[in-house]
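I am still learning, so can you show me any protein sequence you like together with the matching structure tokens, please?
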Amino acid sequence: MKLHEIPKEERVLIDANIFLYTHMRSSVDCFEFLDRCAENLYSGFVPSHIMSEVMHVIMLAEARKSGIVSGSNPAKQLSEKPGMIKSMWEYNAIMRNILDAGITIVPVNGEDLHSALRLQRLHGLMTNDSIFLAVAHRLEIKAIASADKAFRNIPSIDLYEPGDL
């Protein structure tokens, strides 16, 4: 199913790639979906580990764009330049806009980690994906917004994908 097919008032768990494709201007569908969340047409939820992933990727993108880092291991390079981190403002503004867009950030707890281990074995998911799915199960959220193909064959969820990627 596509993002624009999500029923109004649905509770939706949002994956990192939806934010990142919006940020990179790669998907109008992702942008419009997040707009609908901000307008409260849906109740959007994001696990805390996913939001920290988004923050990290957007921060590194700014560091690359501004020439602060280049080549391999940009996170290590940036960590060695705390003064430069203090001067970065673009990612900070982007993250504040995301955080103020009416999306609820939910914590990951120990129960989720135990569930994630079971879900990894059951579905062959990577760690972050299995934690994401565990949070969806705990919150009883069936709708997932993601471009990640790993969720396509999970019977317990309804996957909504961008149609323009």
Summary: The CA atoms of residues 62 and 91 lie 6 Å apart.
